[in-house]
Amino acid sequence: MRILVRGESFELLCERCLFWPSQSLLVVADSHFGKAETFQQRGLWLPSAPIQQDLSVLSSLTKRLSVRNLLFLGDLVHSLAGVTEDIVRAFATWVTGYPGRIEMVIGNHDAGLAKRWPTAWNSVKLSECVRIGDFLFQHQPPGELTQDRGFHWAGHVHPVITLDRGPDRIRLPAFIISDSLGLLPAFSRLAGGFEVSPSAHDRVFVVGKQDVYAV
Amino acid sequence: MLHLELEPKPDKTTLLFTNTRSHAERWYQAILGAKPDWAKTTALHHGSLDQEERHRVEGDIKSGILRLVVSTSSLDLGVDFPPVQDVIQIGSAKSVARAIQRAGRAYHRPGEDTRVRLCPTNVMEILEASAVREAIQDGVIEERAPRHKPLDVLVQFMLNSAFDEGFDPVELLAQVRSAYSFRTVTDDEFIWALQFIRSGGSLAAYSEFRKVELDGGRYRFASPSLAREHRMNIGTISSDSSVVVQMRGGKRLGMIDEAFVAKLRPGHVIQFAGRTVEFVQARDMVAYVKPARQRHSLATVWTGTVFPLSVPLSRYLRENVEYLLQAAQGAAPRSSEVASLLPIAKIQLARSGIPTARQTLVEACRTGEGHHLFVYTWEGLSVNEGLGHLAAYRLARLSPNTIAVSATNHGFELLASEPPGSPEVVREALTAVDDLDADIQGSFNYPELAKRAFRDIARVAGLIRQGLPSAHKSARHLHMSSSLLFDVFREYEPHHPLLMQAYCEVRELQLELDRLRAVMQRIADHEFLYVPITRLTPFAFPLYTERIRSRLSTEKFERRIARLQREVFD
Fold first, then answer.
1. Which residue has the higher pLDDT, B79 or B162?
2. Nearest of B204, B205, B221 to residue B213 by alpha carbon
3. Which of B201, B222, B464 is nearest residue A47 as measured by Cβ atoms?
4. Torsion of CA A81, B489, B467, A169, to 10 degrees
5. Taking CB atoms and an 8 Å limit, are A42 and B229 in contact across chains?
6. pLDDT digits (tens, 9 = 90+) for B81-107
7. Which of A8, A142, A187, B395 could bridge across to A146 with cysteines, CB 3.0–4.6 Å?
8. By C-alpha distance, which of B318, B310, B363, B364 is closest to B522?
9. Are A43 and A124 in contact (CB under 8 A)?
10. How many CA atoms lie within 13 A of B110 on its CB side?
């Protein structure tokens, strides 16, 4: 699904990522790697969805779209404890094999990890916020008082929308686009969601299995 | 409007039972609205009030301070209260056992009778009162069917045994099998549960799992913190995710459903714990309120179970319907309830018909809203919902149609946009038992029902944590909704035994498929009384109001009902 934001063309992908063709930039928010492992260590049952599965989605996307720049929009991992050796190794292998540039803005769940960043992941560039032209990329949406007139892309919220069609109630991850803010759905399928109530001027797009749909 | 003799007598306490917490709140408010000077001697008691308040009320009943207590099942069981002498039940108790239990709250000496006064809230409940009395006279009471080895309870029991020195699996299995519900637990099932708490499940999917470990032949918690966390989650009574209600800067009033709080906006006024309070804000699982000035308020709603009519009571009720027919045809009324319903029975008979216990009545009519079918089974809410959705699904499959279903304990209404078909077609839709399972799956949003059943299972088995008010912030990254967990399991472990349990509970407990099948068989054996009607009948009235209740705001609803009441009963 292609949309225009401040004159620029963006693509909303059903893999729950955002693509900016003119910058060859793929944005991935809230991948929460190691969430199942974090739960398991605390005696909670959550089956691991292998990180390889998520990484192979990214591989095919970056190839298909010839992505030169990859940006993780925070909450790359769920917790420091959940970053097991297997996860460090798997992500390191993927990073090494990826020919483009990888950047990451630090999310609230990454705080512990940022201090003990695995050396095998050193080619990932860390920052608090990324600015490209009129567009700002950061993990959390800015507060209402922000003076910045640029357009913010953010994750953190994991927005979902419930479509109510009589007996068929279905809850889907969503992109929510307002005048100055675009919220990305969580990339992780284990992330859960926060039911948002968009205002009348927001553009809302829900993510289905095959495509993204305007609501 | 109801007129109830409620003048409390000195040295005597009256218990007024309602079936839901919402009703208890409303009756309490209404009574104090009419009799403000009773405030000091009247109290409210239900399971969502703060424990301290409940204990205070219980103490005041014992010491004889209170004249009137409005209550739900929260006072059904437990200690006898000597000064209680009068019991009033609002609405039907829906089961013989519950009626006896509530009557038993009244003070009595061995060998002496106790009395409970039933205050019906609709016409058919008058007949239910008569059915309850006959059942008691015949010594008929509901059986309590024990649950069949629920695995969530087994898992929790194992974890409860894993504190301190832990348990020996062989000894524990013997203990488990000594419980009636678990007497047939197989070795395989027990070993599955052992693996489940020790390694999470399949090794590949749970490489990091830690809960209990095997040490010297005994299973015990792998760390004190895991044990502590489990301790906070013990118990099998689950309420919907609850939020504490607290006066701003003060007293805790009780608990309220999270889903209800989510609908409140600051400034909304609600009735809670017998007070009228204004919602201020919700923060960290606490809903803050302050005293309200305004009187108009919303009734607090808890999602609870509507008591379904029990199987024996249904049978007696259908017989009483036949007594009503006999009386309307001129026979002497069998009971005072039947006598009091005689004028209504005559209207019913003139406009439609009254079935014998060997007949099934279906009324059909057309209004500006569409084509109505009213079907009477007197078999309880779950059967009526099940049969209603099943029939709607089958009729709409035969010819394109949009059909709305609304059900009560007594029957259901189908409202169709197109003619639903001939009487034979309707009868077939209500009685065909071939492909019943497939049609049930087609007519319900099955995964959605299973998801709801799974919520309780997940909580009991310890898959998700109960809200811990104090540890809230630090535990937030371990929060998981049961609904997401359900989806994850369905994708990665579709045959998980706890998922299977959820589907099984939907079939057996919620849809009561065995009972549904029996009812369909009975309708097939019955004479089918299909009556076109031109005016709404007294039997149809509660079904009709049930549907419009969900659509209109209260005010409009009451005005419309008043008009309908005149049309039906005058």
1. B162
2. B221
3. B201
4. 130
5. yes
6. 666 678 888 988 888 988 888 887 776
7. A142
8. B318
9. no
10. 0
d(CA B128, CA B118): 10
Residue B554 in tokens? 């209260």
Looking at residue B20, its pLDDT comes to 85
Tokens 């049969």 -> residue: B387
Integer Rg of chain B from CA:
26
Confidence of residue B471 (pLDDT cuts 50, 70, 90): very low
Answer yes or no: are the C-beta atoms of B391 and B424 closer than 8 Å: no
Q: Which residues of B touch A (CB under 8 A)?
A: 196, 200-202, 204-211, 222, 226, 229-230, 445, 448, 463-465, 477-481, 483-485, 488-489, 491-493
Residue B469 is predicted with a pLDDT of: 46
B chain contacts of residue A86, beta-carbon cutoff 8 Å: 207
Per the structure block, which two tokens stand in for B308? Answer: 């379904």
If pLDDT is split at 50, 70 and 90, which confidence band does B470 have? very low
> Where does the pLDDT of residue A16 fall: very low under 50, low under 70, confident under 90, or very high at 90 and above?
very high
- pLDDT surpasses 70 at B380: yes
Which residues from B are below 8 Å from A82, CB to CB? 208
Q: What is this structure's pTM?
A: 0.75
Written as one letter, the residue type at B414 is L
What average pLDDT does the segment B349-362 reach?
95
Task: Give me the pLDDT at residue B58, please.
Answer: 87
- The separation between CA B353 and the C-alpha centre of its own chain, rounded to angstroms, equals 31
Kindly state the tokens that stand for A188: 């992780």
3 state SS of A181: strand
User: Rounded to an integer, what distance in angstroms lies between the CA atom of residue A117 and that of residue A125?
Assistant: 11
A42–B209 C-beta distance less than 8 A: no
- Residue with token string 């029996």: B518
B-chain residues near A43 (CB < 8 A): 209-211, 222, 226, 229-230
Indicate if the pLDDT at residue B437 is higher than 70: yes
Q: What does the pLDDT read at residue A119?
A: 92
* Spatial CB neighbours of B457, under 8 Å, sequence gap ≥ 6: B150, B152, B463, B498, B501, B502, B505
